[in-house]
Write a structure and sequence with these properties.
Elements lengths: L1 E2 L13 H10 L6 H6 L3 H6 L17 H7 L1 H9 L15 H8 L15 H18 L5 H25 L16 E10 L4 E10 L4 E9 L5 H19 L3 E6 L2 H9 L7 H11 L4 E6 L6 H10 L1
Parallel strand pairs: 1-2, 2-5, 5-6
Antiparallel strand pairs: 2-3, 3-4
Bound molecules: zinc ion (ZN).
The site of zinc ion has 6 residues, from loops.
Amino acid sequence: MHWCDPALQVTPGFKKWNHAISLLLHVCSGITLASLESLALGENLAKRSLTANITCKHCGELETANHVFLHCNFARQVWDLIHLWTTDFKPSDCASFGEALLLTIQLKNLPPLGVTGNIFPWIIWGLWIARNLFVFENRVTTPAELITKSIRNAQEWTMAQANIAQQRPPSSHGLLDHLPLDTLVCFIDAAWQATTQRAGCGWIFFTLQGERLDQGTSIFEHTSTPQMAEELAIRSALLHARTAGYSRICIKSDCQALVASITSKNYPTDLYGITRDIEHLSLSFDFIVFSFIPRNMNFLADSLAVLIL
Ligand SMILES: [Zn+2]
């Protein structure tokens, strides 16, 4: 679940969900949507009335995530120097960090890089580290140094993952081993704005082999609570799955209370109608299971929900 501050519209993204999850856990735990809001960026400090240093040390503009990671001259120099992907793509041309990260899901790394996952977050992480060194220690990182270091980190991590995979017995590879082989995994999330009572819902379907099948979003007005937003997101995803003809699905939501209420059939009074809808829709599938996923692993659905809001 994502509670939106209207002034903060920042995001990230991916390709295969297993890459996504491992990248998120091992690399981007510092730059998920949620934690971007807590980064000590000038924009965020200003919101907390800590207005002493809210401008970019490179150029003096307000220090937003979009500025630091995409549009500052320093970031532009980095992105201009980079040739990471088989197609020509410049994140600095994107309007927002979220848009850039979602677009990188589709990109293929150039083979000589030796990096299998999405390399974009590694460069973002490099920009963040460089920013901190400059702000707190007055140490300047050149764009070339930043790129070299970021790629080296990504290569080392890729090699480490390969070593870990070799050491692991096949049965321990995933939490989804118990599911029927043709089950589709659906990551769902909602973003909710208290001021407008709007909910943005996002869902994304993957095969168990990690191939992304499709995704969708919807917006609901007059949504009174975050949990109602989550329920609407699940109902929307189930309607989509039924229309698409999916018969076996595993729903992943980061709203633990909701998953508990659906699985125990102990429905909250104020959401009884929607929850019954979900129960009714569930009967359309040969196999359906609802399970909880930690918020930092629900990165893609979170991004979709926030972008639509
Ligand atoms: Zn700047």
